[in-house]
Design goal:
Blueprint lengths: L2 H15 L31 E4 L2 E4 L8 H5 L5 E2 L2 E8 L5 H15 L4 E5 L8 E4 L4 E4 L7 E5 L7 H12 L14 E3 L45 E3 L15 H10 L4
Length: about 260
């Protein structure tokens, strides 16, 4: 048997062995995105960013610290689609990788975003890694960027969509520039050290209304130090929210407007 034939048989056997989940149930391969790609060569340096809750911000001394990358950049659009290369760490199990792949697939059903496996020709891409917590950068960063999805607690559809939306250029809903028309922020109830999570940003709201059902909206008691609300709706202070399990219609609308999807 020639070496090439042996390698082909080995790959086929490995593929077959991954066709069932850990519990023995079949894995639905129709939701998977083909990923036979080389490991990215770029070196990621954790010291080049500071973490603000689930948002990674480049340090002013890093190579990425310019106006575009600090505020977030759009991914380039080619013809009708926005191409976003991705790589998923081999430290995830096949079952965990499938959860991430299904999360990426959910964007393709309703937007022009297309996640494609990383190749050596890609300079900018997202790298999914199980680091400390769930976090992402805002927008495209030059030279590759992490999205951290820790195996313990970050692999729900909501969280995957939330962090990918950050990477596409979106902030949290409660920090948008017009938030004062819709919510009160109760700073006296915020746990010390987390005030920055509620700091208002200069955002492009794309003419869409404030959305309590967005996966980018914090819960009413987020980072509370005393079990009292940190955010309340001006229309109804008793209104409860924060139970979104997937992108809202306005999350999808904003993607399509920002990237001019047809």
């Amino acid at each position: 048997m020639t070496p090439n034939v042996f390698c082909l048989l080995f790959l086929l056997m490995a593929e077959t062995s991954l066709s069932t989940a850990k519990n023995g149930d079949p894995v639905d391969k129709s939701d998977n995105i083909l990923e036979i790609v080389p490991r990215p060569k770029a070196q990621f340096l954790p010291e080049t960013f500071v973490l603000q809750d689930d948002v990674a911000v480049p340090k002013a001394t890093s190579r990425n610290a310019n106006l575009c990358t600090l505020k977030g950049c759009k991914w380039p659009k080619r013809r009708s689609y926005v191409r976003v290369p991705y790589y998923i760490s081999s430290n995830y199990s096949q079952e965990e990788r499938n959860l991430i792949l299904r999360g990426l697939k959910s964007f393709e059903r309703s937007t022009c975003i297309r996640f494609v496996p990383y190749s050596n020709y890609d300079q900018d891409y997202i790298y999914f890694e199980s680091k400390d917590g769930c976090w992402s950068y805002i927008g495209r960063q030059d030279g590759g960027q992490y999205i951290s999805l820790n195996k313990d607690g970050c692999l729900s559809r909501r969280t995957i969509q939330h962090e990918v939306l950050h990477a596409l250029g979106f902030h949290h809903e409660q920090v948008r520039s017009d938030r004062d028309n819709y919510v009160w922020i109760h700073s006296q109830n915020i746990e010390p050290g987390h005030e920055n999570n509620f700091k208002k940003r200069l955002t492009n709201n794309l003419g869409t209304p404030y959305d309590f059902t967005s996966v980018m909206q914090y819960g009413k008691y987020a980072f509370s130090k005393n079990e009292l609300p940190t955010i309340t709706a001006k229309s109804n202070r008793y209104y409860e929210w924060g139970r979104a399990t997937k992108m809202s219609i306005y999350d999808i609308t904003r993607i399509n407007m920002l990237y001019k999807c047809k």
